[in-house]
Specification:
alpha/beta; Rossmann fold; Arc Repressor Mutant, subunit A; 2 domains; 11 helices; 6 strands; globular
Length: about 220
């Protein structure tokens, strides 16, 4: 009995969120064949997912984006607001930038397409569980294109303050508002104000774009 309990604790516990029952059942059947991963629950919309994420506290949440009641991006935001440590892997049919960057900005650690092979999806789940970003090759290409060929931006004549530069560096390193607040010993509300000012001054639409800007301009490094 104790040996079985030990084995279970080694499982990567996955919550599957998708509005199509056939997808949920297919993923469950696939994961049943993987010894170190177990599906602990499933939700058919974002509202159910937020509740189950809180109740089950899975290791990885496999998240569709287009769902009734509450879409995946809003669901990611709410789950991350309640449980910042949650590790979310998007699994969707959509590879448009209007989905990719908002999902990453909301807190997704990985983004895979439903045409991924079972082996690639299983490996992505393992990566995300370890805190490593996992991107489908198509998605990785779009992220790199955004990094290397950003849209030309007109920046404000008002420079960033030293504190705003510090916040920007921490954003580029992947820190969330709560972590930035703890690091700089300021409130989360103050961090949100700094983030808003940074986006406004740089004429950027998201934290993702801000992070890419900081890396491109040498203000931050992923190795830091």
């Amino acid at each position: 009995m104790n040996e079985k309990q030990t084995e279970k604790t080694a499982f990567i516990r996955v919550l599957v969120v998708d509005d199509h029952a056939i997808i949920r059942k297919g993923i469950r059947a696939m994961l049943d064949l993987v010894p170190d991963i177990g599906q602990v629950g499933e939700a058919e919309n974002g509202i159910q997912a937020v509740k189950l994420a809180s109740d089950l506290k899975p290791d990885v949440i496999l998240m569709d984006l287009m769902m009734p009641e509450m879409d995946g991006i809003e669901c990611i935001r709410q789950i991350k607001a309640q449980q910042p440590e949650s590790r979310i892997l998007v699994l969707t049919n959509f590879a448009g930038e209007d989905m990719i960057f908002p999902a990453i900005k909301a807190g997704a650690m990985g983004y895979h397409l439903k045409d991924s092979s079972p082996e690639a999806l299983v490996e992505a789940i393992r990566q995300v569980n370890q805190g490593v970003a996992a991107l489908h090759p198509t998605i990785a290409k779009k992220v790199l294109e955004e990094f290397h060929h950003p849209e030309k931006q007109q920046f404000s004549s008002e420079p960033l303050t030293q504190r705003e530069v510090e916040v920007l560096r921490l954003i580029a390193q992947g820190h969330e508002n709560r972590e930035i607040a703890d690091h700089l010993v300021i409130s989360e509300a103050t961090v949100r104000t700094h983030v808003s000012n940074i986006l406004g001054k740089l004429h950027l639409a998201s934290r993702t774009q801000a992070a890419l800007y900081a890396l491109r301009e040498g203000l931050a490094s992923l190795d830091q």
